[in-house]
Design brief:
With 352 residues, the protein is of the alpha/beta class. 51% of the residues lie in helices and 12% in strands. Helix 1 (5-25) crosses helix 3, helix 1 crosses helix 8 and helix 6 packs across helix 9. The protein is elongated and about 70 Å long.
């Protein structure tokens, strides 16, 4: 008798990602796993070590299900598997809960396992600040341990929430594309569960008797995502019927495909709209489709020093009016003390 369908689903999702990691990043490791030296001259002791994959685990159902699947699948592929839990220090006793997660991961057979304490700032709001601190800690852990990848437990439900948050911000098609299955420097972050719903992960934990921790912040109406999860999405399903989450997840993938194509177009077009000194020519920019032109403007602003996370659609629209609605207006102030202004038919974007 095989595993419960929920367990089988999460294991299959993780197995596919681990195969991708092996194929993309570790051809030498694959040879070592199969008992083949990378070169004829190498001895068995010189073969490269098998790759290390870490799971980011909060102790919640999604990440515990992910950790259990990684612990089950990785050894069969000759992959080393470890785990990291991040203590944000935002709740009393968070350090003790982090220690409990470490113990649970070790009980699953994961090595190395560690808890990392972070200090959460205030920039961008509490949710964004916690996210920034968490990813910085995960990046540091991956670098210290030499990990090839970090698995994240985001589900299809998380993806739907991300799409709705992007829609509310009005930040364009890229914000509607949600979370990528592969992201980060060198494709470090992998999200195996984007096609699985939250209930599948919770069911997998239940049938395996895996203890889980439900973060009270996930039910706190003070947080935007929490309100969306417990009020917004249920209201949408009541008004529109079941299938809203699946439809939003599909929208994310379609939007990502479109955004990737437009980004590629903008990258190719950028050289053609710069003069010999590298300045952007307004007339040539005006001739481009708005979606392509605004991508070039956004990239130029970021290269000049504007923080990507603080650069919103309204900022780019103001800069775009220097191209499409020129009436002698003055310079546009952007985040990061970056200034955009039109001078003699050229668009100059630089630190003020």
């Amino acid at each position: 008798m095989g595993p419960h369908p929920a367990v089988a689903a999460i294991r299959l999702a993780v197995r596919r990602v681990l195969h991708d990691i092996l194929n993309e990043h570790q051809p030498a490791a694959i040879s070592a796993i199969r008992g083949i030296s990378a070169t004829p001259e190498q001895t068995p002791h010189e073969r490269p070590p098998s790759p290390l994959v870490l799971v980011a685990c909060s102790g919640g159902a999604d990440s515990m299900a992910l950790a259990s699947a990684l612990a089950f699948e990785a050894p069969k592929l000759g992959i080393r598997a470890g785990g990291v839990t991040v203590d944000h220090g935002l709740q009393p006793g968070s350090d003790l809960r982090a220690e409990e997660v470490v113990l649970r991961l070790r009980e699953l057979g994961l090595r190395p396992v560690e808890s990392v304490a972070v200090s959460v700032g205030r920039e961008g709001g509490p949710e964004a600040a916690a996210r920034d601190a968490r990813y910085a800690a995960l990046d540091d852990a991956a670098d210290r341990h030499g990990a090839t990848a970090i698995l994240l437990g985001h589900t299809r439900d998380d993806q739907a929430e991300t799409v709705l948050l992007g829609l509310a911000r009005g930040s364009g098609i890229r914000s509607l594309s949600g979370m990528a299955a592969v992201s980060g420097a060198g494709g470090r972050y992998r999200r195996p569960f984007l096609q699985l719903d939250r209930q599948t992960a919770r069911k997998a934990c239940m049938v395996q008797s895996l203890p889980v921790w439900d973060d009270p912040h996930n039910a706190d109406p003070a947080y935007t995502r929490s309100r969306l999860r417990h009020e917004g999405l249920p209201a949408l399903e009541k008004a529109l019927g079941k299938g809203v989450v699946e439809a939003l997840a599909r929208t994310a993938q379609l939007s990502r495909d479109d955004a990737d194509a437009l980004d590629a177009w903008a990258s190719q077009a950028e050289a053609s709209v710069r003069d010999a000194t590298g300045l952007l020519e307004c007339a040539k920019l005006h001739a481009l489709p708005p979606a392509v032109r605004r991508r070039i403007l956004r990239r130029a602003a970021i290269e000049a020093g504007a923080p990507a996370g603080s650069l919103f659609a309204r900022h780019i629209e103001e800069v775009d009016r220097l191209i499409t609605g020129w009436r002698g207006q003055g310079a546009i102030n952007l985040p990061g003390k970056v200034v955009a202004q039109r001078q003699g038919g050229r668009l100059v974007i630089r630190q003020g």
